[in-house]
Amino acid sequence: MNALFINTRPSHKADFDLPIPSTRLPLLNIRHVDKLSNQENVWLTEFIQGKIQTVVVVSTEAVKGALAQLKRHGIHHAQDLPHCPTMIAVGKPTKNALAEFGFNVITPNEHALPMSNEGMIQMPQLSCLGDGDTVMIWRGVCGRRVLHDDLVKRGVSIKAMVFYERYTPHNLADDMAQLFAKTPTNTQLFVLISSAMGLNGWVANDPRTHQISFITLGDRLAKLTKRHYPNNNVYQTDKLSNQQIVAILDGVMH
Fold this sequence. Notes:
Elements: E1 3-7, E2 22-24, E3 29-32, H1 38-48, E4 54-57, H2 60-72, E5 86-89, H3 92-100, E6 105-106, H4 117-122, H5 124-127, E7 134-140, H6 145-153, E8 157-167, H7 172-182, E9 188-193, H8 196-205, E10 211-217, H9 219-228, E11 234-237, H10 242-253
Parallel strand pairs: 1-2, 1-9, 4-5, 4-7, 5-6, 7-8, 9-10, 10-11
Antiparallel strand pairs: 3-8
Helix pairs in contact: 2-3
């Protein structure tokens, strides 16, 4: 079987070491926010003063943006803070980036939960929260709305810090057209879908000329993808690790 893996994550993300050929086709790019809003500056000051105990961090990009802002306020290591906040990271790379700054970090994985919105919602550090509690979220524009909305429904006060935004590459349509034009129609494509925004970009430009199987991050994306492609195979992974992607491909190919 001719097969090709399409890595749709932003271009700065690491490649996978896979048993089949792969190519890059980023569905999203990242743009960092240089200036915080007045409200966000107030919230950041509260965090620096030790008034916020629980922080959810959704990506390494959020870490980069947050640490840049903290350093502007003279915080160059977690030990410079007057408290030890509960830092919750969505995945291992985010955890490692925070730990390098000196934070103690937990992830859903420590509780045998998926590295996703759903996994974080079930973590005991978050599932016990309600009226009167506060959570700060380090995220991108409109990021992690499922987690945000679940906490709000329970009466949790959310302080959402936006450190970056994702956007669809301007040349995505042309890049997709070129990729499909040079790929034989009998090639089995495996397309990675790691966000709803990325899925929307794919759907908008997919000529539907090839046989495609999707590998999605988490149950919610699997369901969204199946809604758009009810006749295609959709394989779900709980984290974007090389090991899990290889296991899915090996299972399909053999």
